[in-house]
DNA sequence: AGAATAGCAGATTTCGAAATTCGGAGAAGG
DNA sequence: CCTTCTCCGAATTTCGAAATCTGCTATTCT
């Protein structure tokens, strides 16, 4: 009967979709974060209507929601486009992720009970499970790894006791993930990333929040630098491919 | 020609409304923050359609946007309601406001140029201008004071250099303002509040960020405690008025 | 009488089409 | 030849009605 307070904290795909709009939000969000919809691409509701098989309203409603989350920009009465990626924002997101997620982890370690530990352990185990997948470049596999990865992090932060903090982390993680998936070509997961996860969980379960937060900080900045390296490489070097963000997004006028 | 990066940072009422939906968002947000739509109240699109004189779509799109901002909750297929206020959230918002706005102010003082100073001074001057209004309980006057107040704070934070930080501050301020306006019965502005504004601006212009941030911190926690005091008084004491959230909200059916 | 089910009225969600708006192509004028 | 204005097609926004869903009420069965 009593409502949860604080902003709704919901990650990625929820099991039950009561509403067509909800389903569309998740699907669209997934397509943007994963990079299937490219940075800066125009989003034509007409196209999505066909693609997702829903009417105008759910798509439009989803678009407005994602605009508030920073994944999409509403452009006057000129429709919507996928938010542009840029290096400054990556830096900013990485920095705030490190700060806020660090705080969330610290508080969770202080507040967390055995159940919290169990959830985190379970989440890391599930993450290990998809780790072994050979081919993470395939959409399906990458989606799955990222989902488990998010779940692990949020299992860690779950007991921070602050819905707003969780919401902020969620927004940052979501937007940050776009950079990894847009630029980092990971065939298989870097071993050091995996080790960091283990180390964070270990310190967390031992209630050593100083150590845990310190590793998490390194983990996040590490990921940020990796993405940044690729991003620079993509933007700077060969002016030939300068027009990355290839037009191939909108399928309107080929040629 | 080039897009601003980072999430869109827009406060309250924007000058130009290109789209009916945009106008509806601002209007609805105003009605929620000001308390004209009460905490927990059901939001019937049918009612708003009549009240605002627009069709289903703009209202629905606005509702989804506000849901992402935390002012409204979307409830399965059971429609929307104004987000509930509660004491825990007030505490949380106050704490995060102090932290994040403090950081925003610190960075702005470090980055800010003469123009930034000028804007802040001008904003405070405009705030002083409405300060003299006799009757701040009237919607119009309170709306104006709050708008100027927000503008002053944001003028201060404007040079923090971090769109995400600004966005977070914006969300917190918005949601925090609801508590003041729901519970604090301010006939005239407390003198100490006014003095704090002056002191913050003074320290900011003198580039003393330690002092400025310290006063800001006090300012925010001060406002939080004030709201909390009233909130407790409203919730706890007389079970008689247990059904606070008096009906007088919607001016639709004066029965 | 109590519990469970069917039916109904009120709301909400979803659709498809009408009305606006944008941006460019082409004509007219300098 | 360049600029400005007008008109047209494409896309977006907005509306209003049809389809669904929810929660309550009345009815029926045990």
Short description:
Chain A contains nine helices and three strands. Chain A has 255 residues and is mainly α. Chain A has two domains: 63 residues, Arc Repressor Mutant, subunit A (Orthogonal Bundle); 149 residues, Up-down Bundle (Four Helix Bundle (Hemerythrin (Met), subunit A)), CATH 1.20.120.
What is the CATH superfamily of the largest domain in chain A? GntR ligand-binding domain-like
The structural class of chain A is: mainly alpha
- The portion of residues assigned to helices of chain A is 55-70%
Query: Quaternary status of these chains?
Result: homodimer
Rg of chain A, please? Answer: 19 Å
Q: What share of the residues of chain A does DSSP label as strand, in percent? A: under 5%
The CATH architecture of the largest domain in chain A can be named as Up-down Bundle
Largest interface: A-B, 36 and 36 residues
Would you tell me which CATH topology of the largest domain in chain A applies? Answer: Four Helix Bundle (Hemerythrin (Met), subunit A)
User: What is the count of β-strands of chain A?
Assistant: 3
Mean pLDDT figure of chain A: 85
The level 1 CATH classification of the largest domain in chain A is: Mainly Alpha
Order of helices and strands of chain A: HEHHEEHHHHHH
Distance between the termini of chain A: 57 Å
Q: Largest sheet of chain A, described in full? A: 3 strands, antiparallel
List low-pLDDT spans of chain A: 1-15, 238-255
Q: Strands across the major sheet of chain A, in which order?
A: 1-3-2
Number of helices of chain A: 9
């Amino acid at each position: 009967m009593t409502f949860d307070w604080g902003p709704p904290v919901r990650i990625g795909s929820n099991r039950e979709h009561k509403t067509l709009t909800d389903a569309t939000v998740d699907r669209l969000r997934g397509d943007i974060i994963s990079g299937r919809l490219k940075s800066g691409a125009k989003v034509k509701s007409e196209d999505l209507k066909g693609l997702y098989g829903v009417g105008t309203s759910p798509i439009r409603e989803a678009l407005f929601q994602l605009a508030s989350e920073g994944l999409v920009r509403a452009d006057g009465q000129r429709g919507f486009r996928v938010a542009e990626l840029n290096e400054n924002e990556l830096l900013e997101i990485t920095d705030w992720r490190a700060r806020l997620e660090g705080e969330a982890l610290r508080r969770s370690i202080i507040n967390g009970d055995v159940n919290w530990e169990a959830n985190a352990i379970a989440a890391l185990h599930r993450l290990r499970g998809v780790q072994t997948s050979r081919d993470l470049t395939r959409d399906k596999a990458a989606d799955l790894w990222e989902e488990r990865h998010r779940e692990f992090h949020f299992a860690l932060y779950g007991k921070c006791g602050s819905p707003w903090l969780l919401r902020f982390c969620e927004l940052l993680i979501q937007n940050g993930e776009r950079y990894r998936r847009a630029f980092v070509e990971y065939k298989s997961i870097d071993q050091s990333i995996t080790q960091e996860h283990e180390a964070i969980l270990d310190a967390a379960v031992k209630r050593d929040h100083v150590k845990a937060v310190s590793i998490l900080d390194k983990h996040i900045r590490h990921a940020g630098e990796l993405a940044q390296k690729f991003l620079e490489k993509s933007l700077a070097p060969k002016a030939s491919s300068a027009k990355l963000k290839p037009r191939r997004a909108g399928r309107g006028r080929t040629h």
